[in-house]
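> call design_seq(struct)
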């Protein structure tokens, strides 16, 4: 019988070689069984890669962030950058078929649309500069500010900009050189006579169309109106005066037809430069007689895309109308006569010059 001493067990004898071989056999048998079981149950996790066979655990057993079950989510295909860009919204079609002049207050108080619908108009005319020279918007032109003819209420500019972003085709009516205020305030830009500022048959002063300052002023005003978003600017009194006592004018090309033509074309070129980049049409209020006197014939107007607002008839205007696709004549009428009559506008007291 064995005894224990000091907490240790007694001697049990040495292991034989046979015992060791039996132990190794048991271990190898267990290993073979484990390998075969792993191959049977884990073969779906053995994948062929470019580096040979590899064992990959299922996603749920991998360390790190869990991914949702693919069966529980919808497949979302993200568009490419080119596909992601939305098609630009098409601008509402703006066209002048029947235009009605209303006071600026109709835009400010919200009654313009109702008045246009009642009259059967699809376009609006606003007088932005009349024969007295006052401007119906806040201008940054130095001559206008110095002469006190600029508007003073910035909210008017804001209201015009907002209105012009709408669907209504809007025309700014601008009296160019007939201006009863600025020449009085600044003689340097005035059309002069022997007695001082020249006056026309209505007793009104004029800017001198031959002076660079006067042309630059008119062109600058057109640039500001274009920036406010007007679709069209109808120019009145844009040439040398043709009424009144022209003989007393002390200088200027009143009797030189070519010089008058050159001045008219120079003005249109300056306006074109000031309005570049804006989608605005520059038009002329004139009759056949005025166009012929200023030398603006079919050849000189060939590259010009504006309208002719006119109260007259005749072969000269008919030629202009026939020369352009879709017509370029807007008939000035006292009341709208229906769309079948072509483009027309109610333009009270047209200023021909």
């Amino acid at each position: 019988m064995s005894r224990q001493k000091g907490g240790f067990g007694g001697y049990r004898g040495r292991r034989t070689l046979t015992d060791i071989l039996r132990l190794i056999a048991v271990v190898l048998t267990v290993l073979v069984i484990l390998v075969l079981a792993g191959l049977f149950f884990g073969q779906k996790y053995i994948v062929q890669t470019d580096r040979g066979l590899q064992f990959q655990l299922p996603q749920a057993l991998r360390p790190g962030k869990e991914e949702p079950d693919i069966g529980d989510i919808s497949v979302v295909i993200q568009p490419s950058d080119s596909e992601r860009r939305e098609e630009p919204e098409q601008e509402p079609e703006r066209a002048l078929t029947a235009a009605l002049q209303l006071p600026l207050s109709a835009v400010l108080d919200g009654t313009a649309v109702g008045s246009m619908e009642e009259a059967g108009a699809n376009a609006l005319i606003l007088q932005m500069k009349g024969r007295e020279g006052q401007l119906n918007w806040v201008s940054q032109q130095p001559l206008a500010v110095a002469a006190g003819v600029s508007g003073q209420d910035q909210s008017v500019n804001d209201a015009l900009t907002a209105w012009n972003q709408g669907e209504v085709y809007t025309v700014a009516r601008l009296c160019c050189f007939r201006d009863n205020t600025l020449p009085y305030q600044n003689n340097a830009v005035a059309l002069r006579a022997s007695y001082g500022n020249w006056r026309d048959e209505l007793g009104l002063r004029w800017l001198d169309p031959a002076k660079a300052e006067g042309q630059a002023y008119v062109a600058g005003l057109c640039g500001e109106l274009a920036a406010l978003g007007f679709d069209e600017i109808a120019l009145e009194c844009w040439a040398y005066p043709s009424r009144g006592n022209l003989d007393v004018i002390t200088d200027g090309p009143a009797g030189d037809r070519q010089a008058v033509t050159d001045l008219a074309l120079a003005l249109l070129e300056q306006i074109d430069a000031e309005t570049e980049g804006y989608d605005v049409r520059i038009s002329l209020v004139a009759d056949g007689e005025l166009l012929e006197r200023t030398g603006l014939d079919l050849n000189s107007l060939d590259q010009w895309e504006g309208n002719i607002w006119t109260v007259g008839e005749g072969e000269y205007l008919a030629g202009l109308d026939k020369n352009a696709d879709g017509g370029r004549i807007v008939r000035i009428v006292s009341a709208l006569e229906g769309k079948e009559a072509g483009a027309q506008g109610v333009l009270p007291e047209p200023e021909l010059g």
